[in-house]
Amino acid sequence: MRFLSYWIFPIISGLMWLATLLGLLIHWIVDTHRTKYASMQGNQTIAYISDVGASELKPLFVTGCIITTIFLDLSFGADRLLRHKGRLVPNTSTGEKVLSGLTIFFAVVGTVGLTCLSGFDTLRYPRLHDIFLLLFIAGYLLSAIFICWEYQRLGHKNRQHRVLRISFFIKLIFVIVELLLAIAFVATNFKQYYDQAAILEWVIAFIFSFYVFSFCVDLYPAVATRTNRLSMNSARQMEETYYATHPSVLPHPRDTQDSQRTLTSGNGHGHTHRGHTNGAQPKTRTDQRDF
Predict the structure, then answer these.
(1) Nearest to 141 by CA among 180, 191, 100, 169
(2) 58-91: per-residue pLDDT in tens?
(3) Which of 78, 80, 125, 267 has a C-alpha 20 to 30 A away from that of 281?
């Protein structure tokens, strides 16, 4: 199990969410032949996720939402823990730590929203269901915005860690797309275009699964730092690591002796041995990867 690490949390969460959505959708289309549920509006022909989840598949809906949020929150917690321990690029400023805290806080808000909306279904508790739906969407959207901001700051100061830029752009695309879709969902729902709103809800939910999977990009580099933590402030450690992996560039003892002899006997010669004085110190490479 060499490569099994914290990155498995978002995998479990994302797969559970996808399985829940597909189970509900396939059941409504194949098993019920697109039946009209009691919670659906008069002119509505396409079921919302919550319409199917309030039916006989409510246990699946509730279980899927709880497992999804548990492992997604574990992903947020693992990211914070690994950065604190130095196994991922650490948060070195107060601003980055505040952004990380806000990310986790709003993720918990989204967790409460998703868990409660599955229990307080739209058929029996329509008002509570709508409130928790708003908490779910707003919570995870704000969480994504703050983690984007955090990764932008980290990536700016640690340009050698390309994984930060990759993760930043993935989450930025998610924020933009989901925000536009959420606005369209609210507008169509308000205008009572229920079928269009239902389609948008399914699309938003499926896209959310790719956001969950994006945390694999963040957590997978921790596999390579199980035994060696990242050192961001020790130039000497970076130099020792470089020489350990590039023994061919180590200065030879004879070169060192010749360089010392050149320095001590420079008065007797009209020129210095530039090949020894300049070549004795190899250029130190300090760019360590987070891979």
Answers:
(1) 180
(2) 999 999 999 999 999 999 999 888 888 888 888 7
(3) 267
- Identify the CA nearest to 208 among candidates 177, 250, 183: 177
CA distances from 83 to 75, 125, 214, 276 (A): 12, 41, 17, 43
User: What band does 129 get if pLDDT is binned at 50, 70 and 90?
Assistant: very high
Give 222's DSSP letter. G
Give one word for 193, left, alpha or beta, with left for phi > 0 and alpha for psi -120 to 50: beta
How many other β-carbons are positioned within 10 Å of the β-carbon of residue 153? Answer: 18
Give yes or no for residue 104 having a pLDDT over 70: yes
Exposure of 149 by Cβ count < 10 A (0-12 exposed, 13-18 middle, 19+ buried)?
buried
Q: Using alpha carbons, select from 24, 19, 65, 63 the residue that is nearest to residue 34.
A: 24
Burial label, 232 (beta-carbon count in 10 A; 0-12, 13-18, 19+): middle
Is the predicted pLDDT of residue 289 greater than 90, yes or no?
Answer: no
